[in-house]
Design brief:
single chain; alpha+beta; SH3 type barrels; 6-stranded mixed sheet; 3 helices; 6 strands; globular
Length: 117
């Protein structure tokens, strides 16, 4: 288990599968009844947060890289560009289904060759 503060996660840069910076995670929406994260709020574009498009990103498409202190996002930049944003004053109760459907699976782990002859 690796513990990371919510504050740390909600202020990190997000990277595409190609390693490109696509924005920043600015918040996480939590279902307090089910005790689960419903989605991360990703700010894409804009200048210093002004004019940014907010996206509801499924938590299954996010992974935290503690070494680089960033979120790896399993969704291509083109998909993010096409996705519709959310209204922060009228938050949806679920992640953007298009992003969930078009997320790339995580890379497969390569088997280790240690101790093989």
């Amino acid at each position: 288990m690796r513990l990371v503060t919510a504050n740390t996660l909600s202020t990190v840069e997000a990277l595409s599968p190609a390693g490109e910076s696509v924005g920043k995670i600015v918040d996480f929406m939590v279902d307090t009844e089910r005790q689960s994260v419903v989605y991360g709020v990703l700010a894409v574009g804009g200048v210093l947060g002004v004019g940014a498009k907010m996206l509801a990103v499924p938590p299954s498409s996010l992974s935290y890289d503690s070494g680089r202190r960033c979120m790896n996002l399993a969704v291509d930049t083109a998909v993010l560009d096409e996705a519709s944003g959310i209204d922060r004053s009228n938050l949806p109760g679920h992640a953007n289904r298009d992003l969930l459907a078009r997320a790339q699976p995580p890379p497969a782990l390569k088997p280790t060759t240690r101790n093989q002859r």
